[in-house]
Amino acid sequence: MNKIPALSPTVLLAVALLIYPLIFSGAFYLDVGVTFLLAAISASAWNIVGGYAGQVSVGHAMFFGLGAYAPLLCYKLYGWTPMAGIPFGIAASVALAILIGIPTFRLTGHYFSMATIAVAELIRIYFGTWDLVGAAIGLQGPATARGWWDLTFRSELPYYYIFLTVLAVLLSFTYLMERHRFGYYLRAIKVGERAARSLGVPVQQTKIRALVLSAMFTSVAGSLYSVKTGFIDPESGFGILVSVQMVIIAALGGAGRLYGPLIGALILIPLQTATNTWFGGGGTGLTFIVYGGIIVLIARYEPGGIYDLWEQISPRRWRRKHAS
Amino acid sequence: MLLLQVIVGGLLLGAIYALFSSGLTLIWGMMNFINFAHGEFVMLGMYVSLLVVMYLGGGPAAFGFGAAFALFVLGVVVYLSLIRYVLRGPMLAQILSTFGLALLLRYTAFWIFSANFVSLPQTSLSGTINVGGILMPIPQLVAGVIAILLTIGLHLMLTCTTIGSQLLAVSEDRGAAMLMGIKPDRMQALAWGLSAGAAGIAGALMAIAYPWSPSVGETFGLTAFVVVALGGFGSVPGALFAGLIVGLIQALSAFWFGPIYKDIVVYALFVALLWLRPQGLMGKA
């Protein structure tokens, strides 16, 4: 009884995302769709540690960037298919996550936030001077595909479905995590770390696991980005705006909610596309003024994001029906 | 001799780091709150100085007070309209509030002032003096010395005056302070004003001696984190000491490894500190 109403929005969503490219087949709409999916993947990955565990990373670009550089670096150095670099990106991200997690998770959450932003900046500046990774110019992927395995397609359609698959995997994973003991640990830590510890939750270990999982998926998102665009530089990989986008999308939709990042991306990506189209290149700066404003407003009025807001204002009957 | 020159330059810049970092550490010590927009406050102090010089005229004293006053007001307004409401909220709201504010201020500055580097027109402070073979530019020297004096002044104010005791009382025990007739909200607003004011005046001092663009706020904010972590969270003397050290480390790493590595070395120091001594050099374990 309970499962059907909980599942039906999911089915609707899945169908909508599956048929979107068939309805909006123009290059522009397809591009918006692909951007939306990538943003949703990144923000959902951030959500694991930032939302569920309540450890707010403001430097997730470091994992995104490592994931983005790895495929193109493999291609540049050895001529391998960019796909081969994805595991290397994941490995590097996991190592970095552990390096940051171990010292900062012993302290209060502020230290973790400060460390993430400092390390992301450190890596960004360093990659800008490192010749192996193309310094400030960055790296390029294969110009023309040598085969399907290069994942270099002229149309965006294959990317759309690849990204959609990854998003589906990530959301299923998160769904299972929510219902697993690990998910309960995370929520316990978020609500009250001391109480969680006194009840026997391995706090330190759980937080590090959450960060590692989040870093893995963020790294994959970065790899998808660079394989698709065939280009990466320090700013598009490690720039603070990459981190900002993950944070704002997850927080706007609802941090720590399964579909929060999806809702956030659904609102923000069209908004961003519209401002960029209307204002051209000059719109980028304006976009981030608006982003800053939105983040402040969320923090001040509704830290739970739109998801919480909806739960407050939605009709009581609907709420009771979906209470579980 | 060149090395000595580099060391002096680093210490003088470090003095300004000490001043704005003491503002950050004040807020942390009082309410366990990290201001991600602190570097942007410094950046705004620099632009306020520029605007004062351009439109009102006047020397360093005028724009120094102008920047300190403007940022004091901004700090109070930010506390009353935003921080007050998120202080007891979830971690997400605490971090996002000032992080969002930082973006808002930074990109508004980009929008208004463009990304180009600017510097103050020549003030009455210019030229260099030669102290025992070391050439010291007067603007840097004046800015550094004033920054040290102001940081010491802030410390004295916090430790030796009634207002300082009241601030301390609120940070120690909010409820008990209220019973003693201290209004915690007012004191915390004052702390934000002082913190932002210190950042603003540090910005004005920085503007005397160095060119800048809207992006410096991010660098200064991160530098302040490192200084505060090194000096121990909540300690103004610690910030003074650590500010000088960070300035020195930056100058030496720029000298030995090249200018691009100065921030890398400092951020790496931050990560190393978190591993080895999270309470800071002067903090208690």
Walk me through the structure.
The complex is a heterodimer of chains A (324) and B (285). Chain A is an all-alpha fold. Chain A has a single domain, classed as ABC transporter involved in vitamin B12 uptake, BtuC (Orthogonal Bundle), CATH 1.10.3470. Chain A is 75% helix and 1% strand. Chain A has helices at residues 3-23, 27-52, 61-78, 86-104, 109-127, 157-179, 181-191, 193-198, 203-229, 234-238, 240-253, 260-279, 283-301, 305-313, 316-321, and strands at 139-140, 231-232. Chain A has a two-stranded antiparallel sheet. The longest helix of chain A is centred in the middle third of the chain and has 27 residues, at 203-229. Chain A is globular. With 285 residues, chain B is an all-alpha fold. Chain B has one domain (2-114, 129-276): ABC transporter involved in vitamin B12 uptake, BtuC, CATH 1.10.3470. Chain B contains eleven helices and two strands; from the N terminus they run ααααββααααααα. Chain B has a two-stranded antiparallel sheet with strand order 1-2. Chain B starts with a helix and ends in a 9-residue tail after the last helix. The model of chain B has no long low-confidence stretch (mean pLDDT 88). The interface between A and B is large, with 50 and 45 residues.
What is the strand and helix layout of this fold?
The complex is a heterodimer of chains A (324) and B (285).
Chain A: H1 3-23, H2 27-52, H3 61-78, H4 86-104, H5 109-127, E1 139-140, H6 157-179, H7 181-191, H8 193-198, H9 203-229, E2 231-232, H10 234-238, H11 240-253, H12 260-279, H13 283-301, H14 305-313, H15 316-321
Antiparallel strand pairs in A: 1-2
Helix pairs in contact in A: 2-6, 2-9, 2-11, 2-12, 3-4, 3-9, 4-9, 6-7, 7-9, 11-12, 11-13, 12-13
Chain B: H1 2-31, H2 38-56, H3 60-86, H4 91-113, E1 128-131, E2 134-137, H5 138-160, H6 162-172, H7 174-179, H8 184-209, H9 216-231, H10 236-257, H11 261-276
Antiparallel strand pairs in B: 1-2
